[in-house]
Design brief:
Layout lengths: L1 E2 L2 E2 L5 H11 L3 H19 L11 H34 L16 H32 L7 H33 L1
Antiparallel strand pairs: 1-2
Helix pairs in contact: 2-5, 3-4, 3-5, 4-5
Keywords: Membrane, Transmembrane, Transmembrane helix
Organism: Paenarthrobacter ureafaciens
Protein name: ABC transporter permease
């Protein structure tokens, strides 16, 4: 059995972990939370400011505005990709012509490809909102607020994992379409 030409039968730790990552997108938030908690634990251990508390207000504001801009632009691009994907996956060959490569995908595989894209959009939207809220809450204070900053970084890390999955899905769809 294969999932977008990723063999499920193959044994090996790398393939099993990669397949698990592909099929469990909600775990992105758990991985991101663990990463942020490790970051904060290291900051406490080395007696450093949490997250970006000690960074200057101008640099913090620039970072969160950049994250908000990137999240909004990437969410728009992903949404556009979904509409294009619907057209590509829904296209049928003309009667009497050879079947298109993407027509060979099962409905389950088509749904899984679509879910990869659709899962990334809410996380990017949450990153956009959290970044803008953090910019407003922190204002021009000399010291940052670690709680909203931590929330932003959880959404940022989770969105990065979701976008990795989206890139993989696009690569597979292109490989199937041109194969």
């Amino acid at each position: 059995m294969s999932l977008y030409e990723v063999d499920v039968e193959r044994r090996g730790r790398r393939r099993i972990l990669w397949r698990w990552f592909l099929l469990h997108p909600r775990a992105d938030y758990l991985w991101a939370l663990i990463l942020v908690l490790l970051w904060m634990a290291a900051a406490l251990l080395f007696r450093q400011p949490l997250i970006l508390e000690g960074v200057g207000p101008g640099a913090r504001r620039t970072l969160f505005q950049t994250l908000a801009t990137m999240a909004g632009a990437t969410a728009g691009l992903t949404l556009t990709s979904v509409s294009m994907l619907i057209n590509v996956l829904g296209k049928k060959s003309a009667p009497g012509q050879r079947e298109l490569p993407l027509e060979k995908l099962t409905p389950t595989h088509r749904r899984q490809i679509g879910e990869v894209f659709l899962f990334a959009i809410p996380g990017l939207g949450l990153l956009l909102i959290a970044s803008l809220i953090t910019v407003v809450l922190e204002g021009d204070e000399s010291r940052g607020l670690w709680i909203p900053e931590a929330v932003v970084f959880v959404f940022a890390f989770a969105s990065a994992l979701a976008l990795l999955r989206v890139a993989w899905a696009l690569r597979r769809v292109l490989a199937i379409a041109t194969g």
